[in-house]
Amino acid sequence: MINFPQLYREFPKKFWIVAGVHFIDKIGATIVFPFFALYVTSQFGVGMMEAGVLLGLLSLTGIIGSVIGGALTDRLGRRKLILFGLVASALTSLTLGSVNRFAWLFPVAALVGLFSEVGGPAHAAMIADILPKEQRQEGFGILRVVGNMAWLVGPTVAGFVARSSFFALFVLDAVMSCVVAVLFYSFMSETKPETRERHDAEGLLQTFRDYRIVLRDKAYVAFLVAAVLMGMVYIQMYNSLSVYLRDNHGIEPQGYGFLLTSSAITVIFFQFWTMRIIKMQPQFLMMAFGTVFYLVGFGMFGVVSAYWLFVVAVVVITVGEMIVMPTSQAIAAGFARTDMRGRYMAVFGLSISVPAAAGPVAAGLVLDNYSPNLLWYLGALLCAISASSFYALHARLGAESRFAPARARIDTAPMAMEAEHG
Q: If you average pLDDT over residues 198-225, what whole number do you get?
């Protein structure tokens, strides 16, 4: 049984402020993102292939925004980038919902992707700033619970709103982003550690050039590649699955929204319990274990037809998600140098943005030209490759202290906290 008052006292006030605004921001995101493919295909009469290309463009420019944001986060600080990203993404998202010609969606979607991701590395770096490394895995797990509380609200509401007005979804998203910006400005201070750095143009250029240091970290790149393969499968639950269920099983948006709500409920009730267990286990081994749940759950989509079995499949995937998501973020933070957290977390963001860019296009090719079930069989294969890769990383890096289970770090926790906050 989780002692919530004790849990609250274990984490600093700044962390809970971030968690609170994260909840509101996620409600806005969950109102639009899961239904975007449905919006494009129904509003403009195009196929999943065209929708996939649009989603791919949005994610591709998101990669650019993340790379820029990662460098500027290490240079200018976390708070400024987060505030800018919130306001800019609100304006561009509202514009996206106002477009009435399919061709015009592309330039607007490019801007949405750019601005929506520019603050992403700053969010992750801020958590790494606030929490010592022995608390990061659990801290990221708490944010998962908070985010899924938003999933409990957003898709359910959006599923009904979308029946009468897709544009209203974009308005709600923009309003939520503006509310979060005001709260963040009012209650959150800068967390960037003090480091020696140059503030001239040459120094700023060097900040971008130092991405080479991240990319030369071979172990980190190997971890990233495995995460991208896993992400290519995971992202399908939030775009192509809605179209697959509608076209092949007659499941309407409300039914899809309930599947996402089922996932959120599972996280809310079991994430705290799960993270108390997984933080005592080797991190890369947990990545492999969680990916196996993805393999089973996504594989089920290709063989089941009853709605309740789709619910079961989503719950199985969610178990893997509860293991993988906080663990992967903690691993990425463990790789990062203090003065390069923004850039390391920006590169880690590729594990989401690359699948988000390539996944819908690949799914569109399969769904429009081959047996729809093939999509899920290929997904299971990618999960098997990814799980094997994480296990190989466990064999190589699992003994290092930066990736050791929390119980193995307990004796050095005071030293770690001093190093992080000194």
A: 78
